[in-house]
Every structure is written in C-alpha cells, then in structure tokens.
Amino acid sequence: MPLEIEVWDDTIQEKLTQDNSFLTQVADVSSDNIINGTIVHLPQAGDPSAVVKNRTQVPATPKRRTDGQVLYLIDEYTTDPVYIPNAETVELSYDKRRSVLDQDVQNLSEEVAEGMLTNFIVSPTGDNATLPTASILETAGAPVDSGLAGSTGKRKAYAIGDLQKLRNFLIKQKAWNEGMMNVLLTPDAATQMFPAESAITATYMAAVTEAERRSGIMYKCQGFNIFVRSSVYNLAEDKSFKAYGSVVAPTDCEGIFAWNKNMLEKAIGQTKAFEDIGSPTMYGDVYSFLVRVGGRARRKNFEGLVVLKQAASA
Fold first, then answer.
1. For the stretch 144-157, what's the b/e string if a residue is b when 16 or more beta carbons lie within 10 angstroms of its beta carbon?
2. Which domains are delineated in the chain?
3. Cβ(23)–Cβ(116) below 8 Å
4. DSSP β-ladder status, 284-297 and 219-221
5. Residue-level pLDDT at 265
6. pLDDT tens digits, residue range 78-108?
7. Among 73, 14, 20, 9, residue whose Cα is nearest residue 288
8. In sequence order, which residues have a C-beta less than 8 Å from that of residue 304 and are 6 or more positions away?
9. What are phi and psi of 259, to 5 degrees?
10. Record's superkingdom (predicted)?
11. Residue 46 CA to chain centroid, in angstroms?
C-alpha cells in the first residue's frame, strides 16, 4: 500500500516542532527575504540620525544612512533510503513500515534540531560567522560532578542566579522584550536550578499554564519561558563550540542558551516523503524523507542570544 504522502509531509512538519518545542519560540522568516529559495537575507539598519538639543546651526547637513545585510542558507536534510522487503510486509505480526518510518522521522527531527542550534551560534555564510565570546557567560555555583558524558572532573553548578545574569546581559544589550524571552536547559541544568525538593520549584512550575506546558514550557522564572532538551551545546575550554557527535574531551563543558524570540529566525521550507512501492530491483518497498530548513540570529552581532557555559571548578 502506498504512503499517504501529504499526511507524512504534515507529520514531518509537526514532528520538527513537537519534538523540538523550543523552535516554536523562534520567529518565522518573511517570504520577502528568501532569495531563489535557498538563501535568506536579513536587512540590517545602519546608524540612526543624530539628535541635537536646541539646534542653533541651520541648515543642518543631511546624511545618508548606509544599510547592510546578513545572509543564511536554507539547509537540506535527507534520510538514507530504507528498504523493507516484501516478505516483511506480509509475514510480521506488526506494522514494520510504520515502525521504520516513525523512527526515521524521529531521527530526522533530531538532526534538524541540532543543525538549527548550530546555525544559531555559527553561521557559515558571510564574515560575521560566530557568536562573540563576550556573549558566552559562565556559571559560578558550587562544585558538582560534570554531567557531560566523556568529560571528567568538577564543574560549577547552575543556579537561579544564572538566569538573572542572562537577563541582565540581554537587558544591557537592549534585547529584552517581556513575553518573548526563552531559555533552553539541559537536564542537569534543570535539576540544579529547579530541585524537586525545593518548595519554590513548585511555584515556577505553577506559573506555566496547561496550554504552555503542552507546548513544551517546563517552568517560568526571571521572565523566561524555560524549555528542557537532552543536550544543548558542548564547549571546549576556550569557549569554542564543538560539533554534535564529536569526541568529548575530558575538559569539555556543556552549555545552555537564552534568546529573544524576535531576534532569532527560522525558515522551514519544503518537506517531502519519497516512495518506491514494489521496486522490481529491490523486491520490496523503498522510502526516504527530505526537509529544507535554516535559521540564524537576526542581528549581525548575534544580539538577543547569549550562551551560559558550565565553568570548570578546581
């Protein structure tokens, strides 16, 4: 039986945000900014006009504002084709096709999320490619064992005070807008900031409505909507970001990030399911999926985005 292609296309789109709910708190691209379907350009306003109090010299000299732009690519993610022999479609007691395709969509969703998290802090297009180190803060809590698999030693624990630190940083950047602020935590960060035995943790959880909880928000604290994900960032000692899946060094540290919804952008393009039913050369069915998606900080210097690295402890 062939796939219901439109249903699977919708399923892929839904899973991208359902399994990675933090992406719902990233602004969508304007279609006017997409060039040839593959590149997104973000206009950057130049310096504003100077303001003079009680002007005495006229006529004033007019100046032309010089604008710039930031570019990012819409990446294409494709799954390897999966082959399901004809015998497995008729002899097994469970729906092998559904099981295989659900697993592939789940894996695709994970890869897209990691790709988007990377694009938010490292943009491969243009000369303003990486989140400035000044936008990478560090924890200052009590020593705890490192929770990053493959690393060793002690790290400084996450604390509620770190959220206040992130808040102050974004306010000083003039990147704070009430109701638009978000944080993505690792499980260890969530456990250390919001321990189950703390009475105040219940308050932060109670601040979340049922609708917000279904959308992935776990807590509300210091003006942030707080999401939790299995992993966020892995950083080296020098604050450089390490690629997902790379070997973890003993001194590596995990990181979390905070952002203003209006200062991050995503572009979700085509999603497509492919099928070759009853292949005469494979003697079975072949399926694969494709997703086109990209994203970036909207401002050239990554304003509105800050990373918190778990600092090493002696």
1. bebbbeebeeebbb
2. 5-46+68-125+265-297 (3.30.2400), 133-232+254-263+301-309 (3.30.2320)
3. yes
4. unpaired
5. 92
6. 999 989 888 776 665 457 778 888 888 888 8
7. 9
8. 170, 173, 175, 259, 260, 262, 263, 264, 297, 298
9. -155, 160
10. Bacteria
11. 28
